Amino acid sequence: MALYINDDCTACDACVEECPNEAITPGDPIYVIDPTKCSECVGAFDEPQCRLVCPADCIPDNPDYRETREELQEKYDRLHG
Ligand code: SF4
Ligand code: SF4
Fold first, then answer.
1. Which residues, at least 6 apart from 67, have a Cβ–Cβ distance to it below 8 Å?
2. pLDDT class of 75 with cuts at 50, 70, 90
């Protein structure tokens, strides 16, 4: 399942550099996660890195993108060829 950024985002920019899939971009007014790129960090890290660094605790699961661990790994592999 991909994650998404909710309205509590303060646009601090801390998460962007942490994403192994370059899935996070600045939006207006809040930052945005591309669900087709977010693998929940599967393939790269044990837990979602954006959540670890986010001071606003505003990155919940995206209920519209439910995927198995295998599907998340395939997504990661596709992105990194
Ligand atoms: S969970 Fe990982 S892959 Fe998904 S947006 Fe956050 S840092 Fe990127
Ligand atoms: S770390 Fe959190 S508050 Fe900062 S830009 Fe990313 S989602 Fe927004």
1. 1, 2, 75
2. very high
Q: State pTM to two decimals.
A: 0.96
Annotated binding site for [4Fe-4S] cluster: 9, 12, 15, 19, 38, 41, 50, 54
| Closest ligand by atom to 72 CA | 1
CA distance 57 to 79: 26
Q: Tell me, yes or no, whether 1 lies in a domain.
A: no
Specify the CATH number for the domain of residue 68: 3.30.70.20
Q: What is the pLDDT of residue 26?
A: 97
| 4 assigned to some structural domain | no
Please count the structural domains in the chain.
1
**CA–centroid distance, residue 19 to ligand 1 (Å):** 5
Residue 6: inside a domain, yes or no? no
Cα 4 to Cα 35: distance, rounded to the nearest angstrom: 8
